[in-house]
Specification:
single chain; about 240 residues; alpha/beta; Alpha/beta knot; Helicase, Ruva Protein, domain 3; about 10% strand; elongated
């Protein structure tokens, strides 16, 4: 479970309690805007206090999910390149026991403004809790409760399809994907395919392509090797080298 910049200790404590209720093994906090060990948080956590005390803090979402192979982010946005899925469907994709419990993350954004576009782009799937039209905003801890309850139903086989087996093995950790994207962006800027003022938007398209492809570790390594070789060839050519 990952919370980005949580501002309310009551919410953080409530989420810790929910993690204990639903056997979520770890709570990660990205740049919290409150004291997660405040009295209010401890009071709400009840039997989840140990999760508060053990919660790791990170400076960014990328750092918090670097070791995760599958990431689902909760989003209330409509439209965009990636269509949010209902909780049961998104969490069925997240449920991959073969990849290990520490290899997945469920991400929730700020209480006041959720997740930004760059953060949403780091998720393999987006999740949207269906609500009646008019007022779709849920309290952070309430949204977590809805999702964890949906996940429990999925695990029990009551709702949602089972996650498909990965014939080629587990997905790579997010850090490997980010490393490839950073290398590719550096090369594409160097050869002039990207311009600094448009690079972020165009690389978002590359990120979306990789998300849809669900490249396996070996495939990701192949792509990164190609990028390195192309960079070497470009620099060698610009230096006037010959074969």
């Amino acid at each position: 479970m990952v919370l980005i910049e949580p501002a309310g200790p009551l919410n953080v404590g409530s989420v810790a309690r929910l993690c204990a209720n639903y056997a979520v093994p770890e709570l990660r906090l990205v740049a919290p805007r409150c004291d997660p060990l405040a009295d209010e948080a401890r009071r709400m956590a009840v039997h989840g206090v140990h999760l508060l005390e053990q919660a790791r803090q990170f400076p960014s979402l990328a750092a918090a999910i670097a070791d995760c192979r599958r990431v689902v982010a909760a989003s209330g946005r409509e439209g965009g390149a990636t269509t949010p899925l209902p909780p049961e469907e998104a969490l069925a994709w997240l449920r991959t026991p073969a990849e290990g419990p520490a290899a997945v993350a469920l991400v929730f954004g700020r209480e006041d403004r959720g997740l930004d576009s760059q953060e949403l782009g780091q998720a393999g799937r987006l999740l949207r809790i269906p609500t009646p039209p008019g007022y779709g905003s849920l309290n952070l801890s309430h949204a977590v409760a809805v999702c964890l309850a949906a996940g429990q139903r999925t695990l029990a086989g009551q709702e949602g399809p089972a996650a498909p087996a990965m014939a080629g093995g587990p997905l790579p950790p997010r850090q490997a994907v980010e490393d490839l994207l950073a290398d590719a962006e550096e090369l594409l800027l160097e050869v002039g395919f990207l311009q600094p003022h448009t690079a972020r938007a165009r690389m978002a398209g590359v990120r979306e392509l990789l998300r849809r492809a669900e490249a396996l570790p070996g495939e990701l390594a192949l792509l990164r090797g190609m990028v390195h070789q192309l960079r070497w060839a470009c620099r060698r050519g610009s230096d006037g080298g010959s074969g």
